[in-house]
Structures are given as structure tokens and as C-alpha cells.
Amino acid sequence: MKKNSALIGIVLGVAVIAAMGIGFWKFSGGSGGPQFVGQVQNFVVAYAGRDGTDVAWTDAEQKPVTLADFRGKVVLVNFWASWCSPCLRELPSIDRLQNALASDDFTVIAINIDREGKLVAEAFANRLELKHLDLYMDPGGIVGRDVGVNVMPTTVLFGRDGKEIGRMEGPAEWDASEAQALILYYVGQERES
Fold first, then answer.
1. The sheet that has 106-112: what strands, in order across it?
2. Has residue 12 got a pLDDT over 70?
3. How does pLDDT run across 55-94, given as a tens digit for each residue?
4. If residue 33 lies in a helix (H) or strand (E), which one and from where to where?
5. Tens digit of each residue's pLDDT (9 = 90 or more) over 140-176
6. CATH of 38-192, one of 3.40.30.10, 3.40.50.800, 3.30.365.10, 3.40.50.720
7. Cβ(36)–Cβ(166) below 8 Å
8. Neighbouring residues of 131: CB distance < 8 A, sequence distance ≥ 6
9. Which residues, 6+ apart, have CB-to-CB distance to 77 below 8 Å?
């Protein structure tokens, strides 16, 4: 009887370890999924994607813009402010990402939340030598509140349908290979669905 109990214990232990290994393999990208490592290790997938299609911000000409205007594209939305030094360190990588990956399938939107709006956004865009990003503003912070931004910078990835795929709070080097791989994974996933 003791032999059977010990054998059952060993079999159950091996099964638990195997299940944990399979779970880790799938989570870490072994199944072909995205890898949350390096610069994007804090990216959090939104399992019940928030719909952002009706949330409006303004462009440099003060015209309203929504995610619906980008329907059909995967959109990376970065919220930044001039008083946020991590934001300012991150923005050049956002600009390089737009240069590297902008296409019919993907774009980057950087939304400034400073109350002064366009004047501040333009000054910092010039100072940082941003060449590939269009200027967008949300001086009242309404868009940020509507999509649940609590930390600066916050970067949210939306699918072609305007629903949130996931987000990352805090800065990253968005043009790093692991960040680009994460984005390209979701661009490919969204194309297939």
C-alpha cells in the first residue's frame, strides 16, 4: 500500500511540474506567441479589450481625431507630457519606431497631455528632433482618463477594430528588437483575424 501511495505521489508531482513547464513555455513565447522580455517585459495583455474608437483628441490644426480614423490599422498610442522626464527620454524611440514600422497595417500616435497643448508639444517635438510623428494633443487629459491612463508615460496598443490589445506603464525603448517583435506579432495576429 505504501508503494502505491509513493508511486501516486511521484506521478502527481511529475504531472504538476510538467503542467507548470508547459504553462511557462506558452507564456514565454514558446508557442509562437509574443515574448514579454527586455524592453516590453511590463506589457500587460488586455483580456477584455477596452473599446477606444470613440475617444477624441486633437491634431495640430485643432481638429478632432479618433481611433476610428485609423480603423484597419494596429495603433500604438503613447501618452506623454513635457514635465515627464521618462516620457522625454522615451519619445525618440517612439519616433524611430514610427519610421521603422509605419505601414498600411500599423501606426504610432503620440498624444501630449500638457494643458498648454500645441505650443508645448511643438516646442518639445522640435527640441527632441522628432521627424516621423504627427503632433496630437489632449490638453484636458480626457482621452487619458477615458482609456485608464494613471502613469506617465503609458503606451496602449489597439487592434484594427479599436479595441485595446494591451498596455505598458512606464518608459521603454520602443524601437528595440523585442518591442518591434511584440508589435509585429500583434500586427500579424490582427491580419489573420
1. 44-45, 164-169, 154-158, 74-80, 106-112, 135-137, 56-59, 64-66
2. no
3. 889 998 999 999 999 989 999 999 999 999 999 999 999 9
4. none
5. 888 888 888 999 999 999 999 999 999 999 999 999 9
6. 3.40.30.10
7. no
8. 95, 99
9. 52, 67, 108, 109, 110, 111, 147, 155, 156, 157, 158
